[in-house]
Amino acid sequence: MKKFKLFALSLVAAGVLFLGGAKSQAQISVGVDIGPAPDCPYGYYDVPPYDCAPYGYYGPEWFNGGVFIGVGPWFHGPDHFRGHVDNHFHPDHGYHGGFPARGEHRTPEHMSPPAHFKGNEVRDGRGHSFRK
User: What does the alpha-carbon distance between residue 83 and residue 114 come to, in Å, rounded to a whole number?
Assistant: First the structure.
C-alpha cells in the first residue's frame, strides 16, 4: 500500500508540473518585413530603399512585352538572369534628376526602354553587379 501511495503521489506531482503550470508563449523569429513592391512606372532600384528608377535606367532584358519584370526582393526570375543598367541614373552614383512618382503611369512612348540604351553595368536583380 505504501508503494501505491508513493506512485499516486508521483503521478499527482507530475500532473501539476506538466499540466497545471502556466503555458509559455515564447517564440523566436527573425525576419524582415519589406512590404509590397513599389508601384513604379519604370521599375525600381534593386537595392534599398527601392525607390522608383527613372526612364533609361534599365535595358530591354528587364522588360517582357513592355512590362517591367522586376528587381529587388520581389524579383523571382531565374538565378542566372543578368540585365544591363545605366547606373548614371542611380542616386548612389550622383544622379539628382527627376524620378517618377509612385503610382505614375508610363506614357506610350516610354512603354519600352530607349532604343539607344547603353548600359554601363550588368546586374542580377538581387543587388549584385557584374563586369560587363
Answer: 15
